[in-house]
Write a structure and sequence with these properties.
Number of domains of chain B: 1
Structural class of chain A: mainly alpha
Largest sheet of chain A: 2 strands, antiparallel
Oligomer: heterodimer
Distance between the termini of chain A: 58 Å
Radius of gyration of chain B: 19 Å
Structural class of chain B: mainly alpha
Largest sheet of chain B: none
Helix content of chain B: over 70%
Distance between the termini of chain B: 35 Å
Strand content of chain B: under 5%
Shape of chain A: globular
């Protein structure tokens, strides 16, 4: 059991090389990819589950004999929880991707598969690295491999731009992380996390490190307003890559923050407030932007930001608990955040994969061009519905369980802490409620416009369900959604284990029972709900035997020639909500209205403006460009000259040191 | 336990359409008519149960699932609240979140069923319902926050069972909660001044327009669901208003049902003397409700619990 994780890493790295070597023999490289994916993810999964079940960490150390310390990886319950997310999602998305890309023309898929493995390995390393330098190396590998996965369709200019934006954003974040880890290393004199933990951090330094961490990790995670790369990169990538990108990759920022909290422990109070505020802004902002989107994958990308908001709310709650030393709140908050990480990975993975199926079948992702697909893609439609219900946090599905925990953490924090907590926690509760309502509106819009009614553009009657392998991946994810919705105990207890690792709070059986017991009652109520539903169905079935059933076209309210173009569109569905929030969002409406008694051609197009991109980042980048132009004077392109600069710089340093 | 649940659900099923009958009678009284009999809502539902179904060729299974899901969710939500002398069969830490979640589930299905017909009118109603319910939900949660702070509990039945002391201490706060919750109740149940259940102009409707294509058993389920929703949300309000608990069961029983009847008459009076608001005014009304609840929260913040 112990070394399964190492085997998994080895298998994945060796097979990655083999895939590249067998590029010429496509069948062979594909089968190597599949076999190694099953083995690697399977072993990783087993080791994660073992550690989560036993709640005891495992260490592997290898001395580098270098100034940067040792090659030290360790799997504690926190790492194992994320390892679980990574292995499940990469396995299912990989399987789907294999089928998704099968007839994909002349592209060299081996490179893609090898990079997929490399991304998997580097993610596994990120969550298990216990040394700052190793962590940053793995972090950088994740960035680079993600970049290559995103630019799969590099013949499109949009994709290249999106990839470039991602690369720049990610590196800005990494810069902050370097500074943060160096400061930590300077204060503690160590690079290993377990040694860093031993030194207490003074509160001001902890605050500074927290800010650096929030910026550094926040860029990857997509906190508003640092999220600008996210809505560009997700739609640009192939669907299975978007799935892992949204489900796993952006969660690494959450992991990073949790690891920082794990190391530093004592934070000033404003840190918890900041996390709660970030959670509220990202949550509400994300879902509002999502409502304004017309493209399915872009909509889902914004929903990732929303869910990161919910996770951050949980994280903030846990941190409040840590500041006030209240174990129950700590555990409920962190466990809610962690479980939502898992749940979001599952349902967002599911949604991206089913969106991919839709796009593959219909060749469009424009919501307002689609419609009526539930009849032609029955399974994809059902699974998309399961994903939608889960993401809205409705009972019966997994999203409800984690949102329940976050809600509970916020409420309990409100009871026990001082004035500040009361104010911010009640704000958090209200925004969480608002997020739930808006998400439901958004997914009613998405599901309704894509799968229900009639097609709004071309006829989709020829559209058929995709290959069974693609469906299998989605079925498993949908199954997990329902499984956690009905049997939450196992995953909640895993999440509690990982939560206690973050805070080093001991879980007493009473606390664990107090958290899990109400969830079992929830399940009982849900079982009653199902029973009632079954009884209602039976009554109706019996009655329908004696009563006539007719079919007719939808009632046009007296209009005799309704066409499918007259259906409500997704944009019009979202309009009332966007109108209510028009002061927070920016709108861009273009077009010419019909004029006169015999109007000629008229058109209208509207989209929601991306405020942080237009207002915040564009001016900053403009300024940087301006500065760069000014600095052009010293750039001549001669290597000798640059050597001279370096020499002068060293000289200045020496002189400065002597003074 | 099983008997309690059955009793609770049974009472709700049997008595909930009566509230609609009382509202109807009150409105008739104000209009100077005799009006339909008190049991008219039962006759309506009974009539629908004897009719066959007409399904639009555009619809899928979603259209048929929605009435069942929404009725089941609303019905099951009733076991979380006490009803005069009868304790809630299920009450546990955090059940308020489930309570709100069940209503969201019911609403979600009704909305997508409306979109399933492909009718632009129903899409319009669905869109409005989605928008207004978002606002109603945050008001509801703000009320929950205040009630939770006052009782230091997260259990619905204990949060709403106030005693006379808390009315003495926090009377203004509770009044603000009641006022804002009343507006939520009106919105959730599509009553005047937010929506008019009796209107016949599709362009102005919210809730009724979403179920234009439903017929027969499906429509009966939906109407029953609406009646139960009014009953359960109304029972919540009556429970908050009753200032004493722990009396003999028979007294409790009478007080509670008296309260429900007064509530129904009150709703009837509101509907008789108000006109429906213009649609773009509805968000303002709900914002008003939000502000009322917020003032309540501010009082608590200043005064301390």
């Amino acid at each position: 059991m112990m070394d399964f994780f190492l085997y998994s890493l080895t298998i994945l790295s060796v097979s990655g090389v083999l895939i590249i070597l067998t590029t010429r023999f496509r069948k062979m490289s594909e089968s190597i990819f599949l076999i190694s994916l099953i083995l690697g993810c399977g072993l990783g999964f087993i080791s994660a589950v073992t550690i989560l079940a036993s709640r005891t960490p495992i260490d592997y150390r290898l001395n580098f004999r270098m100034p940067i310390g040792e090659f030290y990886i360790g799997v504690d319950p926190l790492s194992a929880f994320f390892l679980l997310v990574i292995t499940i999602l990469f396995f299912l998305a990989g399987l789907y991707g294999y089928s998704y890309l099968k007839d994909h023309g002349k592209k060299n898929l081996s490179v893609h598969y090898a990079l997929y493995h490399l991304a998997l390995i580097s993610l596994m390393l990120v969550v298990t690295a216990q040394n700052a330098v190793l962590f940053l190396m793995a972090w950088e590998m994740v960035t680079v491999t993600s970049y290559f996965l995103i630019v799969f369709y590099d013949e499109r200019e949009v994709t290249r731009k999106a990839g470039y934006l991602f690369l720049i954003a990610a590196h800005t974040g990494t810069f902050c992380l370097w500074v943060m880890f160096l400061l930590m290393a300077r204060h503690t004199g160590a690079m290993n996390f377990d040694q860093m933990m031993l030194t207490p951090f003074p509160l001001p330094l902890a605050g500074l490190l927290f800010v650096l961490g929030v910026i550094g990790f926040g860029v990857k995670t997509g906190f508003i307003p640092l999220h600008i790369w996210l809505p560009h990169a997700h739609p640009a990538a192939p669907s299975h890559v978007s799935a892992v990108l949204s489900a796993v990759m952006i969660k690494m920022g959450v992991y990073g923050l949790m690891r920082i909290i794990f190391i530093i422990k004592d934070f000033p109070e404003w840190c918890a407030v900041t996390l709660l505020l970030i959670g509220m802004i990202s949550g509400v902002g994300g879902v509002l932007y999502a409502l304004g989107q017309h493209e399915i994958k872009k909509l889902l990308a914004y929903h990732s930001i929303e869910n990161i908001g919910i996770i951050t709310l949980g994280l903030g709650t846990g941190l409040w608990g840590q500041i006030y030393h209240n174990e129950s709140v700590i555990l409920v908050g962190y466990a809610g955040a962690l479980l939502h990480v898992f749940n979001h990975a599952v349902f967002k993975g599911l949604l991206f994969l089913s969106a991919g199926s839709v796009i593959r079948s219909t060749h469009t992702g424009e919501i307002d061009h689609l419609g009526g697909l539930l009849k032609h893609l029955p399974w994809t439609g059902c699974l998309f519905l399961i994903g939608s219900l889960s993401i809205c946090g409705l009972p019966l599905f997994n999203g409800f369980v984690s949102e329940w925990l976050v809600f509970r953490g916020l409420f309990e924090g409100m009871f026990q802490f001082k004035m500040n907590a009361l104010i911010f926690n009640s704000l958090g509760i209200i925004s969480l409620a608002l997020i739930g309502g808006l998400a439901a509106a958004c997914f009613a819009k998405a599901f309704g416009a894509i799968f229900l009614g009639n097609s709004r553009s071309v006829d989709f009657t020829h559209v058929k369900e995709n290959s069974p392998i693609m469906c299998v991946s989605m079925f498993v994810l949908g199954g997990i959604c329902l499984w956690i919705g009905f049997f939450p105990t196992q995953m909640v207890s895993f999440a509690l284990g990982a939560a206690s690792t973050i805070s080093s709070a001991q879980i007493s059986t009473t606390i664990e029972e107090a958290i899990i017991f109400p969830l079992l009652k929830v399940v009982l109520v849900l079982i009653i709900l199902m029973t009632i539903a079954v009884v209602l169905i039976l009554f109706k079935r019996i009655a329908m035997k004696f009563l006539p059933i007719e079919n007719a076209p939808t009632w046009g309210c007296g209009y005799s020639l309704p066409t499918r173009r007259m259906q409500y569109t997704a944009s019009s569905f979202a309009e009332p909500i966007l109108r209510i929030f028009r002061n927070v969002l920016g709108f861009n409406v273009e077009g010419n209205k019909p004029k006169g008694y015999f109007p000629d051609e008229a058109k209208i197009s509207s989209h929601v403006l991306e405020a942080s991109e237009d207002i915040l980042f564009r001016p900053i980048f403009k300024f940087i460009e301006f500065l760069s132009v000014k600095f052009k004077i010293i750039q001549y392109g001669y290597t000798q000259l640059y050597l001279l600069y370096i020499f002068i710089f060293l000289l200045v340093l020496l002189v400065w040191k002597m003074i | 336990m099983g008997f309690q649940i059955l009793l609770h659900i049974g009472i709700v099923i049997i008595l909930s359409p009566l509230l609609l009958g009382i509202i109807g009678k009150t409105k008739a009284f104000f209009a100077g008519r005799w009006g339909a009999p008190l049991l008219q809502p039962y006759y309506d539902i009974g009539k629908l149960l004897r009719k066959g179904n007409v399904y639009s060729t555009t619809t899928t299974w979603i259209f048929q699932a929605a009435p069942i899901v929404s009725l089941a969710a609303v019905l099951v939500s009733s076991i979380l609240i006490p009803m005069g002398g009868l304790k809630a069969p299920f009450s546990f830490w955090g059940d308020i979140i489930l309570f709100a979640g069940l209503y969201a589930l019911a609403r979600f299905f009704i909305i997508i069923a409306a979109l399933d017909t492909g009718s632009s009118f129903e899409g319009m109603g669905a869109s409005r319902e989605a928008a207004f319910s978002c606002l109603a939900e945050i008001v509801l949660f703000l009320d929950f926050i205040i009630l939770a702070l006052l009782s230091k509990k997260l259990i619905l039945s204990e949060m709403i069972m106030r005693n006379i002391l808390s009315w003495e201490l926090f009377g203004p706060v509770l009044l603000l909660v009641v006022a804002s919750y009343f507006l939520v109740l009106l919105t959730e149940n599509a009553r005047i001044p937010i929506d008019d259940p009796a209107t016949h102009l599709e362009l102005t409707m919210i809730h009724e327009v979403m179920v234009l294509d439903h017929s027969g058993w499906d429509l009966a389920y939906i109407l029953y669901g609406a009646a139960i929703k009014l009953f359960v949300l109304g029972a919540l309000l009556v429970n908050i208003l009753i200032p004493f608990h722990g009396l003999p069961a028979i007294v409790q029983f009478m007080v509670f049902w008296g309260g429900m009847i007064i509530l129904a008459i009150g709703l009837g009076i509101v509907e008789s003397c108000m006109a429906r608001l213009r649609l773009n005014r509805v968000p303002q009304l709900l914002t008003g409700a939000f502000v009322l609840a917020l003032v309540g929260l501010l009082i608590i913040l200043v005064k301390g619990v």
